[in-house]
Amino acid sequence: MDSKPYTIRYEFDFHNGTREEFVVNLDPVKIAIIWESEPEKPDWTKLENSKCDCCTLDDESTFFCPLAVNVAELVEEFKDSLSFEECTVTCEVPERTYLKKTNTQQGLYSIMGIIMATSGCPVLSFFKPMARFHLPFSTIPETAIRSASMYLLGQFFEHKRGNKPDLDLNILEENYAKVQTVNSGILGRIEGVAQQDADNNAIVILNSLAQMLSMEIEEQLSSYEYLFDK
Hints:
Strands 3-2-1-4-5 form a 5-stranded antiparallel beta sheet, covered by helices on one side. Helix 1 runs antiparallel to helix 2 and helix 4 (about 140-160) crosses helix 6 (about 200-220). The model has no long low-confidence stretch (mean pLDDT about 90). The chain has one domain (about 5-230). It is built from 6 helices and 5 strands, in the order E-E-E-H-E-E-H-H-H-H-H. The protein is an alpha+beta fold.
């Protein structure tokens, strides 16, 4: 296994000629963010501020919310940005480069998704395998299929370990319910930071994805059953 960090680079190119670049380095084994220097920790990143109802972290041992700390730079950088400001977003991963002409909120939700999944938040840790095979700008069908497929691969390994696999996706459905709680928590944190709506709407998109995926799982992914008809 390659010991080098797995690097994901995002570039936002705006029509006025400005460019914003963000680099996410992931530990190739732990699938966790590696920062070159200690990230800033604004007051709003303290764990006690808008702490999620489903949070399993202890305030006494964990003073700051790891998710909030890891998205802080992004939130601060785009706090004055409008959701629908047009831009070209480039996402470069070691295997290939993606490019999309879109708007700020679409680019933000894509990079926020990868940061949140690898931030150290225990609730979102089940996203790590998907994060390793990051697909920027993914649609609801793409995310649903990737999420269910990755989860079932994990259940295959549970079976290999001698454990009973969750083939009904019950735990995955529970996980997505908790994801919505985390999204609400982070929205509560950034309310006083973001002056415009790009940051907020990026989280809203992520939350909408979680809601839609919960519905798909509840309906046994029937929307995609036709793909496997013989």
